[in-house]
């Protein structure tokens, strides 16, 4: 089964998120840190904007030639002794991984952070077949022991507080002395390191994602700060890479351009600590490295996105800058989005992958403040693509009825100025009268969504257009009278 | 039966409106791979050698690596011994069989145990030789191979890396050019590790902590 | 950011400006319209207010392209005769300037016409500074103010330094910057009624930042954002008063602030 989709219940998710004290405590730290670090990194690189253009152009070129780069990539992987598996959908991808694990008699599978694994629901699938998946990225480990999904694409446990982590470690690491001091993040990290070190060394198969695939050399690339991805892919018998079709880039030079914008946009680092290029299995004479190398290429609806506007979304390099800068994400966190990909990139990608019927809330839940587009390293016009989904929703009559009706009435008047102007004058006159004493309303019929949380100002009185015309008439009259007076005098 | 591969490829072609047989498209792709054009290169690293090496040093330190600048390779064993003493570490290291490491005058530090081979996680200190450095970001480039196990980069608590100053390049692209000469076009070793500072995580409340899964310390021995 | 359009009007002739007053100013706060007109006239423009309704943004952002397109045509027809079209709103000006062209893509009858039209559309304060070269205003306003950067103006039109430059010339006024002045206030047009809880959470943080400055007055260039922030501040009982930046720049900052009653006896 794939990850449960709760996007249709977005509003309930939001209510829950806003009431969650731990979540709100954790979220308060998201914006300021990420935003200032990215800005600092961008400021230190005078070529940053040019690099963003370059990154965009590389992705556009690759997507336009994806069939050919894919052929090249596949041929190179095979030439270097690896295997490429194509998966049309999540079920196929899960089966491919399970088959590899079964063939190797795998009991445990260590995992580097991979969003594709979340997308295809790999962990539950493996566990149900007696193969234990062990997440090794610290954030992924934290949510795995809690039975949760990631709430951010690069910082999966960003919704948790330190105290929650401590409580979970005491619950799960029951073999350790209960009196141990876990009050500092360093002690939590040390404990996780110790626990996971044993798992790395015992794993049979290592599953990672890929930040990029390089067609020139048949290489997969992972970018991490912890080093967990490297241990995951180096120690076991087989390294399985899960990647979606849009991860391809042509050459090592191209990927170097993209790497220059990835870390800066994501964490504000000049470069992440570990950028690891993996090509095929262990070579003859090598003292370590995996005996097998498999790349699972997942489509799951992405190829269809190549046909229209949504192709731009396939440039995404999963840096997370859009959510790090999103006021909506800051308010509600990632889980409220109800599926694997949160924030602005999720608001565009999720409807593409699960359908607009289920994902309609997400592209609507944006203020269109434009900050995501402003920081996107590959210049994806995220608001425009969210609007694209709103248009699809509107075309297909999926827009909620009250909203559609309200829009219809407003549109009817706005298109007929001769009706609009007297109607607004009448309405504003009445409202002005009603609100005259206080100057504002704390409740208004049909505006409950507004007045539940904030006051609504009373109109000043007559409309600007009507007042302007009256003033112009008075001025004209005054000029005529003045002229007449001059005429009389003459 | 149509394979999943064919289904995915056909779907990509359909969405792009192509057949994959178009000669100009094939030519463009082949050209790009053959010529691998460079994109935007940061000015900051386009420097004469001395300044380039100084930038590498600055950037590596900024990424929380420590660094010893040594005049000659002969000083490496003593520098390692001093590093271990200063941190109260046992006088024992594990290294690969790389001749550039084998040739060092280890006899100068008779108390230093030097083991050779891949790491199984029990060693505190690993020693590698970098293939190159990148001044732009203070990044080390290590290539895996029979003499250079990649576990050495990952499992020990302390990762010591020797690098020749002459191998410090301005940018990643310059390193790729060298790699292509060494392995031939379109070929990489099993693993190319770019390492920029020691392992870290900020997954607990965004507090940055060093030493997540990989080495807690990265120490660079910059020679020349 | 947006250099003056080199039109024949720059050569000394009085430019004719069509004031796009915006729905919100038209219906709720006409004094902003008069302030805008005064500033434009002081900047040597002849101001006219042709009959108008809405720029179409609510429809556009709700996915209703047909209505957006119809309203866009209506705006273009009403305003294309002027040398410039100026709106006291980054949101409406941004809708026209940045998004109208998208509505006419593939329509050769309109495309050139739309581009020519969009080239002469401006947000009020940036028009004054960047196009008319206004460097100072003759206005006084006693007290400390803080300024919120509305998203569309900031990101679609580059409005940031212009209002600050002019506010610095207002007698008696001192500006204190709030934290995260360039973060969205949570208004987002229809967003604030579609997802009121999220909107409230966002404007709550914004109100915290505003209150923390200790400023007596909040200024911004968009009435939608101002109503949202003022409404939140008032609901919390905050003493901060909210005004459109044009009111203060035009020396008309002595009337009731947003959501305040008119002095008794006046409607």
List the helices and strands and how they pair.
The complex is a heterotrimer of chains A (490), B (224) and C (267).
Chain A: H1 10-19, H2 21-27, H3 30-43, H4 48-64, H5 66-79, E1 83-87, H6 90-103, E2 108-111, H7 115-120, H8 122-128, E3 132-135, H9 138-146, H10 162-172, H11 185-202, E4 205-208, E5 212-214, E6 219-224, H12 228-234, E7 238-244, E8 248-249, H13 252-266, E9 274-278, E10 292-298, H14 302-305, H15 321-324, H16 327-332, H17 343-354, H18 356-359, H19 361-364, H20 371-375, H21 382-395, H22 401-414, H23 417-434, E11 440-441, H24 448-451, E12 456-457, H25 464-489
Parallel strand pairs in A: 1-10, 2-3, 2-4, 4-7, 5-8, 7-10
Antiparallel strand pairs in A: 5-6, 6-9, 11-12
Chain B: H1 4-16, H2 23-35, H3 49-62, E1 66-70, H4 76-86, E2 92-95, H5 99-102, E3 113-116, E4 125-129, E5 132-134, E6 139-143, H6 151-154, E7 158-164, E8 168-169, H7 172-183, E9 191-195, E10 200-201, E11 209-210, E12 217-223
Parallel strand pairs in B: 1-12, 2-3, 2-4, 4-7, 5-8, 7-12
Antiparallel strand pairs in B: 5-6, 6-9, 10-11
Chain C: E1 16-19, H1 23-27, H2 30-42, E2 46-48, H3 57-61, H4 65-79, E3 84-87, H5 90-103, H6 108-118, E4 121-123, H7 124-131, E5 140-148, H8 151-157, H9 161-167, E6 171-175, H10 191-194, H11 196-213, E7 217-220, H12 223-236, E8 241-244, H13 245-249
Parallel strand pairs in C: 1-2, 1-3, 3-4, 5-6, 5-7, 7-8
Q: In terms of per-residue confidence, which ranges of chain A show pLDDT below 50 for 5 or more consecutive residues?
A: none
What is the global morphology of chain A?
elongated
Q: Give start-end ranges of low-pLDDT stretches of chain C.
A: 1-9
| Category by helix and strand content of chain A | alpha/beta
Estimate percent helicity of chain C: 40-55%
Strand order of the largest sheet of chain C: 2-1-3-4
Distance between termini of chain A? 95 Å
Number of helices of chain A: 25
Keywords (chain A): 4Fe-4S, Electron transport, Iron, Iron-sulfur, Metal-binding, Repeat, Transport
Protein name (chain A): Lactate utilization protein
Domain 4Fe-4S ferredoxin-type (chain A): 306-337
GO molecular function (chain A): 4 iron, 4 sulfur cluster binding; metal ion binding
